Amino acid sequence: NDGIPDKDEEKNGTDPKTPTTQTPTIDITRKPNGDAVITPKKPDGSTYPPGTVVEIPGKDGNPIVVTIGEDGSGIVPNDKLPKGDLPGKGTVTEPNKEPSQPVPVTTPARKNPTIKIEQDPKTGDVTVTPKKPDGSIYPPGTVVEIPGKDGNPITVTIGEDGKGTVPNSDLPEGDIPGTGKIIEKGKTPEEVQVKTPKKLDPNEPQTEQPVSIDITRKPNGDAIVTPKKPGVGGTYPPGTKVVIPGDNDTPIEVIIGEDGSGIVPNDSLPKGKIEGEGTVTEPNKRPSQPVPATTPARKTPTVDLEQDPKTGDVTVTPKQPDGSTYPPGTVVEIPGKGDKPITVTIGEDGKGKVPNSELPDGKVTKPGKITEPGKPAVEVPEVTTPAKVTPTVDLEQDPKTGDVTVTPKRPDGSTYPPGTVVEIPGKDKDHPITVTIGEDGKGKVPNSDLPEGKAPGTGKITEPGKPAVEVPNVTTPAK
Question: Which portions of the sequence form the region Disordered (predicted)?
Answer without folding.
Answer: 1-479
